[in-house]
Design goal:
Blueprint (H helix, E strand, L loop, with lengths): L8 E5 L4 H11 L6 E5 L5 E5 L7 E5 L6 H17 L4 E6 L17 H12 L3 E5 L14 E4 L2 H11 L6 E5 L5 H11 L2 E6 L43 E3 L6 E9 L3 H12 L4 E9 L5 H6 L5 E5 L5 H6 L3 E4 L2 H12 L5 H4 L7
Parallel strand pairs: 1-4, 4-5, 5-6, 6-7, 8-9, 8-11, 11-12, 12-13, 13-14
Antiparallel strand pairs: 2-3, 9-10
Helix pairs in contact: 1-9, 2-3
């Protein structure tokens, strides 16, 4: 039975994660709105909203999956359809924000995250609810309010309740860039920290972005040969090694997403060589691209724990090591608080603040 406080909430979803939308609707005690999203024979996206939404508060549940470009177009068209149907407010519930890794300028590239933010606001979205942005500064790209929820309380609870002898654990940062996040977890669990230094592949922060391009040769013959911009020395990454003691301990790697697992597998092999007897990987978004399930199954990793911000049922069928934590309760509570104009600060209290 719908309560008066949720009677004008309408939850619709695209094709990216209908199961999550069903969970959110069930927790709020509302019926999902009738919305059909399909592709015509020419692959154009069609959206048909069955019910009247005039003056209603619309919540569109759509996340980023491997079919990322279709996910984005579905979201934009659904939002614009709601806007032109005189909805009171249109809130995008986007647990995993697509293109969030492309939030820095690269050589002759662009900041795709900003482009996507402008498209979302232009389509009619008046508010965004998301989880664990790759960089929290992404919120500044939007001209509408953005609530960046945290999955860390769920992951911390999992460590305390589902990892036997977790007091004998050490929180591991897969690279120096994720040391802040690992430190925050370690402080809340009263555990030690280890950092993996040196990687087999180039880190994101070391990718060529054009800032270190050598200057053009000066054409003027009056310039002294010793004057000019000095050449930036190239970085030489050391062999992969662990800074910190993991011998005879449980190693818990934490990150915001698991996409390409090769770096996690390489880190797990080094941790195993250093004496870690159990290895866990915890992350908010489990994209698990390409042959990730097979690599995880054949690796020293004992368990990969992710939330259901991204659907990964197929990957779970291929690998028994993948476990899922349901975070629909957090998203439904955020929707309820926004709808009732209540403070959101309660959802951010006592959570891991570092990225």
């Amino acid at each position: 039975m719908e309560s008066n406080s949720t009677s004008d909430i309408v939850i619709i979803s695209g094709n990216s994660h209908p199961e999550l939308a069903d969970l959110i609707a069930d927790r709020l005690g509302v019926r999902k709105g009738g919305c059909s999203v399909y592709h015509k024979t020419n692959r154009e996206t069609m959206v048909e909203i069955a019910d009247s939404i005039r003056g209603k508060n619309i919540y569109i549940v759509q996340t980023g999956t491997k079919d990322v470009n279709n996910n984005i177009m579905e979201l934009l068209i659904m939002a614009y359809a709601c806007k032109t149907s005189s909805a009171r407010s249109i809130v995008g519930v986007i647990p995993y924000l697509p293109y969030s890794k492309q939030c820095k300028m690269r050589k002759r590239g662009c900041i795709v995250t900003k482009l996507l933010a402008q498209m979302m606001c232009k389509s009619g979205l008046t508010h965004i609810i998301t989880m664990d942005l790759h960089q929290k500064e992404i919120q500044g790209f939007y001209d509408c309010p953005v609530d960046n929820l945290r999955a860390s309380p769920f992951l911390l609870q999992y460590i305390q309740e589902s990892i036997p002898d977790y007091r004998n654990s050490v929180i591991v940062a897969r690279n120096p860039g994720s040391a802040k996040k690992a430190t925050s977890y370690a402080e809340r669990l009263r555990l030690g920290i280890a950092v993996i230094h040196g990687e087999q592949k180039e880190a994101e922060s070391d990718e060529v972005d054009g800032r270190y391009s050598p200057p053009c040769n000066p054409r003027s013959r009056t310039m002294d040969v010793s004057v000019g911009v000095p050449v930036h020395p190239a970085k030489e990454k050391p062999p992969i090694n662990v800074v910190g003691d993991v011998g005879g301990r449980i190693a818990i790697m934490v990150d915001d997403m698991i996409d390409d697992v090769q770096s996690f597998v390489a880190a797990a092999e080094v941790l195993k060589e250093c004496g870690a007897y159990k290895i866990y990987v915890l992350a908010t978004h489990g994209l698990l691209s390409s042959d990730a399930p097979r690599l995880i199954e054949d690796s020293p990793i004992d368990e990969v724990v992710v939330t259901n911000t991204v659907p990964h049922e197929l990957q779970k069928m291929q690998c028994n090591k993948i476990k899922t934590i349901d975070i629909s309760v957090l998203l439904s509570e955020a929707i309820r608080r926004i709808h009732n104009k209540e403070s959101m600060s309660y959802l951010f209290k006592n959570v891991t603040l570092e990225d």
